[in-house]
Amino acid sequence: MWNNPKFLQRLEESGPNSNSNNDTKEEVAYVETPEDKENFDLVFKDVFLECSLKHGIVEDMVVCENTNPHLSGNVYIKFRDLDSAIAAQADFQDRYFDSRPVFAEFCGVRSFEDAICKMFRSNECDRGGLCNFMHVKQPSQGLLQELLKSQAKWSAERGAQRQRV
Ligand SMILES: [Zn+2]
């Protein structure tokens, strides 16, 4: 089993917290509305399901809410198998999201856990959005677990169907 994060997909977010032109240290205060949260969940679910249904088992997925240009809007997806990651990376190369091109590439992050800012989790990161560790934007509570559970069920059913053929 190949167990490293396989590819990185950069989505240029178009939401009000987008700040792709951030070359200053200023950060704009932003309050997420319920509609923003709902839209984020929909995009999160959509990306997860597309990757899972088209390319293979997704083991983890995180979205960065950092404001620095090299992390802002990045989506990291960890596939169980190398072939799935290769297929997904190729498939996303010619794609657009909200009229902006998607840049999908493999990344050297070996562990999401090591790349995630522990201080951000406890609201104590004094580097703010410019931090070089991942500031993970969380989907609604339980969404990722629900997607992983559905994927496991669907995958098991598909495996059972193949054995019957
Ligand atoms: Zn941080």
UniProtKB/TrEMBL annotation:
Q: Which residues cross the membrane?
A: none
Q: Which residues form the C3H1-type domain?
A: 111-138
GO BP terms, alphabetized: mRNA cis splicing, via spliceosome
Map the zinc fingers (C3H1-type) to residue ranges.
111-138
The highest taxon in the source lineage is Eukaryota
GO CC terms of this entry? commitment complex; U2-type prespliceosome; U2AF complex
Q: Which keywords are on file for this protein?
A: Metal-binding, Repeat, Zinc, Zinc-finger
Q: Cite a single GO MF annotation.
A: RNA binding
Q: Does the keyword Electron transport apply?
A: no
Record protein name field: C3H1-type domain-containing protein
Organism of origin is Kuraishia capsulata CBS 1993
User: Source organism lineage?
Assistant: Eukaryota, Fungi, Dikarya, Ascomycota, Saccharomycotina
